[in-house]
């Protein structure tokens, strides 16, 4: 191979840049790696270093909110309207993957788009339940507004004022809300594992380093048959 070959060109060199196109804008890349770091910190400090855990949780919530906003008004490949597909097209793409004949997408492919939605929804739920757990009165107010009957009422004990401390208090007090929070966090680990596996598979199938593309923002130009 010569240096003029797009595969052989050194990443970051002028030749490599000339043979690539910008796909991921800086905000998408900062969101992606910032979220990786914030979630990892939140997971590692859960019930161990509570102030750090809570700070990381707020960082996750802020990043998710920013990504949702950017998904509405951001650059071409960042906008939800540009990559989210319906169930039929998503399932069809997954079927094509199983048959090793899926098309290459310059942006997010349908399976990746579905994963992004699942990650954002799960992260939102995890951050929200964590926010409720931080202060008992928040959970009590939410329970009253949503007319949620606390499990403590089942045995005839407690009253509405006790909802915040008995059923929905801080993580250390336990309760159903803590279980929901932990279940969502564990679900996130499953989704992350599937996401990493999908990225590795797509990188191998299309001979493209997708993690590096999320650092540089650049990918190989679309070839005939690719979806740009």
TrEMBL record:
Residue ranges constituting the Cytochrome b561 bacterial/Ni-hydrogenase domain according to the UniProt record: 23-217
Predominant place of localization: membrane
GO cellular component: plasma membrane
Keyword set includes Nucleotide-binding: no
GO MF term set: electron transfer activity; heme binding
Pfam families: Ni_hydr_CYTB (PF01292)
One example of a Gene Ontology biological process annotation: respiratory electron transport chain
Keywords, comma-separated and alphabetical: Cell membrane, Membrane, Transmembrane, Transmembrane helix
Domain of life: Bacteria
Membrane topology of this protein: Multi-pass membrane protein
Localization terms from the record: Cell membrane
SUPFAM superfamilies: Transmembrane di-heme cytochromes
Membrane-crossing residue ranges in chain numbering: 27-44, 56-75, 111-133, 184-204
Name this polypeptide is given: Cytochrome b/b6 domain-containing protein
Natural source organism: Pseudaminobacter soli (ex Zhang et al. 2022)
UniProt lineage: Bacteria, Pseudomonadati, Pseudomonadota, Alphaproteobacteria, Hyphomicrobiales
